[in-house]
Design a protein that fits this description.
Largest sheet: 6 strands, mixed
Structural class: alpha+beta
Distance between the termini: 24 Å
Strand content: 25-35%
Number of helices: 3
Strand order of the largest sheet: 1-2-3-6-5-7
Number of domains: 1
CATH class: Alpha Beta
CATH topology: Heat Shock Protein 90
């Protein structure tokens, strides 16, 4: 499933609505932590693509055909900018600069790759409806794979 995104900040709300509608038919409930986290991640990644590239992008959401307790949901945003995500330190008063830091803190896995027409930033969330002994978290973790480098403790901005 994918959605074409125009370089317009209003597209962020449209992307959230689109993702919610896809989840509604998947067996993932709207009030489930996975769904709430996924919608926040959609907001962050689409905002980065729209605001920092000024170019069209594509939002992709991968849901398995049968949702189970162990389902993994993958979110991708491909844009037409080949510029890598770069660390950005946001001070306490800054109104931006925390997008990829949120992705890092909420996703179970995330990363980015260069493509022939730009780059793709992706993240994955694992659904856990039962508690698992020894599991740090479900529906959000903190393992970053940012193009081979992780910048711990810094905010990231996709440009």
């Amino acid at each position: 499933m994918q959605l074409e995104i125009r370089p317009d900040p209003a597209e962020v709300g449209r992307a959230r609505r689109w993702a919610r509608s896809r989840l509604a038919g998947s067996g993932i409930q709207a009030d489930e932590p996975l769904a709430e986290t996924l919608i926040l991640l959609v907001s962050e990644l689409v905002t980065n693509a729209v605001v920092h590239t000024g170019r069209p992008a594509v939002l992709r959401l991968s849901l398995p055909p049968a949702v189970t307790e162990e389902t993994t949901v993958r979110l991708e945003v491909a844009d037409r900018s080949g510029r890598a995500p770069v660390p950005r330190c946001a001070d306490d008063d800054a109104t931006g600069g925390r997008g990829l830091a949120l992705v890092d803190g909420l996703a179970d896995r995330w990363g980015w790759s260069v493509e022939s027409t730009g780059k793709r930033i992706w993240c994955e969330l694992d659904r856990c409806t039962k508690s698992r002994e020894g599991a740090a978290s479900c529906g959000g973790g903190a393992v970053a794979y940012g193009g081979g480098a992780a910048f711990e403790g810094l905010a990231y901005e996709a440009v």
